[in-house]
Amino acid sequence: MKKSILTLICLIAAIGISQAQLFPSFKVGLKGALGFSSLRSEGSFFNSDTKTGFQLGAWGRVGIAGFHVQPELYYASKKAGITKDGDEGDATFKSMDMPILLGTRIGIGPIGARIQAGPVFSFAQDGKVVNLSEATNWGAYKKNSTGIIGGIGADISSFTVDLRYEHGLTNLNETGNQKIRMWTIGVGYSFL
Question: What CATH number was assigned to the domain covering residues 22-190?
């Protein structure tokens, strides 16, 4: 009986130590994602439908003691369907996005699950709105914005899968209260 209890304690301790990742880990990879975004406007400026865009870029992850920092840099195309006073149009925002995620990973060896959250900084590259003259004044749109992003993910050897939600914190437009809301599902591959 004592040997069984001692064996069980050793097994639990070994699993705990492997979970803690006492040694630093480092990963670098590429990722792609589909983004389902909408543009929210407070007041009666317009209504927005969800449209599909994409993200392509690179990521890195440095971890120790069960926690990690994951900076990313990717090109994003965010789309929204806009309706204002019976007129319909599409908005497309193209940007370089840089999230800096903090998270933890639970798993053994090459298989694990992650929880991550952090700020995302977007730097506008281009954009357009078609069929809505009131929203085409791109001079009123800011060149950068900030949001918060969070989600869950899974690692299977060198492959990663993520489900995230992004919530805009700053207004995109100088004249109206417009913020991006977006769900993304992405896949990635780690080279290291």
Answer: 2.40.160.20
